[in-house]
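User: Could you check the structure of this?
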Amino acid sequence: MKKRILSLILSVSLLASLGLAACGRQSGDQSGDQLEEIKKKGTIVFAMEGNWAPWTYHDESGELVGFDTEVGQLIAGKLGVEAEFVEGDWEGLFAGLDNGRYDAVINGVEITDERAEKYDFTEPYGYIHTALIVKSDNTDINTFEDLAGKTTANSLNSTYQYLAQDYGAEVSHVEALNDTLEMVLSGRVDATLNAEVSYYDYMKQHPEAELKVAALTEDASLVAIPLRKGEETANLRQAINQAIQELRESGELAALSEKYFGMDITAGN
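Assistant: Sure, the predicted structure tokens are below.
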């Protein structure tokens, strides 16, 4: 009997120890330090579209370049790791961030109330205005209010889609800036919304395009890097914020902005 009781006690103790160990591992996973994990593996994985010039795109040689690409590389350098970029469609960027495939999204992401509820953002590193773009001969759309009952084209679940819908437009979904502008030029939609700086970059590459800016948002949107919400990203967010501050103080952010946009979008309004 004593042997049976002793065996039972040992079995219960062993199970309890295993259970505590499992709980400890689970708790550690949930409250881990993402910055520490990034430094251990030596890379930070950024998600981006890769087809939105001049933010993230491929040059004539096929190399991935752009403002956000270089900002990501500089931030990684400040963290002491390499930057790894994974390209995908807009929706997939955030799905991958949610499930842990990516450490962060760097793709000209504007801070909105809805996004701030789900993600923790770094401090802004860019300030941009949204342009309402139409064909050069369009006289019906002169303000954002004129979008009521009109058609636009934008990426699914983008800031531009929601803004167009707020003004009463019917939105068609496309993947890239060039697609939206081609739809405007062909008359398949009445207008599109996009970053003012992206529009000017497109016009620099296509000066013959019969497009114009009908209106601009009065207030600038804040561009920042979204991270998963929670304590696990707190140190990473602090480190990226420090990197952004150092890059701003050194003038490197402004220089990159001038390189890709022809103007400094990093200094605020």
